[in-house]
Design goal:
heterodimer; A: alpha/beta; Spore Coat Polysaccharide Biosynthesis Protein SpsA, Chain A; 7-stranded mixed beta sheet; 8 helices; globular; B: mainly alpha; 4 helices; 82% helix; 0% strand
């Protein structure tokens, strides 16, 4: 781990309740990591809570969405010379102690991005997703495989590790609305390699995933089209 | 088209053109966007003035009424204009996003420098 500097990007929108726990866990992570909380225009005390924990904070001036929030983090990582960046949600879903698993997998596989996956191995996942959502993920996974020839199972997982090369790409170009699946296709277009490793996730600590049936359909259509367009874009 | 209809349409067209001119003069509308709208107003005016000359062209294209031809043409023009606006909005949102990120990064850097005690506040 010589010369490696790992930045954990924690995107946070109104996470004052769950954030202290996540940050506390992050402070105990081995190997030690630096933490950046990107506050996406929260209306609660998210920013103050993060500062109280002594972490670096980027305050976006308004609620810009997860894509813009994450890209701000990648731009920070690029600007401050980090070699690796991990996305770790502030809501407690991702387990900070498993960052080590991502790092190890990157070292083993030499991939440019490692995705922490709930589905790679059966039995490992402690997180049971709803049937409908699982089908959506399965469909998007197949679609990405058709477009790129790359097999990723948990395409919507936000728990992922990027190396310097991927950070560079994301700092310049990152998808906006539902960025996780599109980011995979974007990287493959640049010739990057992607690897997946089994992790377990917790249920969200606060807040509910509010994807109902109609918005689910919208999600699938929007993301499928976005993936195709990302694939067809020529401005590498 | 009847004479009355053409006069009314002509008045509307002139009013429309004046409105655009006034908006540009007060800097409420950018010149670059006003050009398309001047074109639209100009077309309206031309239709009201020379609407009858379009009769044969409309017949040729299979329209029963010249006014239908004008209507179809207008709807198509509006669609193109709307698309153009969507493009403009997309560009603006891209710009806003970049600016928001830049503000976040700058604020962070500024706080860091203040903490180091390099400069007094304000």
């Amino acid at each position: 781990m010589n010369g490696e500097r790992v930045l954990v990007i924690v995107p946070a929108f109104n996470e004052e309740k769950a954030l202290p726990g996540t940050l506390e866990e992050l402070s105990r992570v081995v190997p030690p990591v630096e933490v950046l909380v990107v506050n996406d225009g929260s209306t609660d005390r998210t920013s103050a809570v993060a500062r109280a924990a002594g972490e670096a904070v980027l305050d976006l001036p308004a609620n810009m969405g997860i894509g813009v929030t994450m890209q701000a983090g990648y731009r920070y990582a690029l600007e401050y010379g980090f070699t690796h960046a991990v996305q770790c949600d502030g809501d407690g879903q991702h387990r900070p102690e498993q960052i080590a698993i991502l790092l190890k997998e990157m070292e083993r596989s030499g991939a440019d991005m490692v995705i922490g996956s709930r589905f790679v191995e059966r039995g490992v996942a402690g997180f049971k997703s709803l049937f409908f959502r699982r089908q959506v993920i399965r469909f998007l996974s197949a679609w990405i495989w058709t477009l790129t020839g790359v097999r990723v199972y948990d395409v919507t997982s936000g728990f992922r590790l990027c190396n310097r090369r991927a950070i560079n790409i994301f700092a310049r170009d990152y998808p906006f609305d539902y960025p996780e699946p599109e980011a995979i296709v974007l990287l493959t277009r640049h010739g990057c390699r992607i690897s997946e490793v089994a992790v377990s996730m917790r249920e969200r600590q606060g807040g509910i995933s509010s994807i109902g049936f109609l918005s689910g359909v919208y999600y699938v259509v929007k993301v499928s089209m976005g993936l195709l367009i990302t694939k067809l874009r020529s401005d590498v | 088209m009847t004479e009355t209809l053409r006069i009314v349409a002509g008045f509307f067209a002139v009013g429309f053109l004046l409105m655009i001119f006034e908006l540009v003069r007060r800097r409420r509308l950018k010149e670059s966007y006003s050009l398309t709208w001047f074109f639209v107003g100009g077309s309206l005016l031309a239709f009201s003035l020379f609407g009858d000359r379009l009769d044969s062209l409309a017949k040729l294209l299979g329209f029963a009424q010249t006014s239908n031809a004008i209507l179809v043409f207008s709807v198509f023009l509006i669609l193109v204009l709307l698309l153009g606006l969507s493009v403009a909005v997309s560009r603006l949102s891209e710009l806003t996003q970049t600016l928001a990120q830049e503000i976040g990064l700058l604020k962070h850097r500024l706080e860091g420098e203040r903490k180091k005690g390099g400069r007094p506040d304000e």
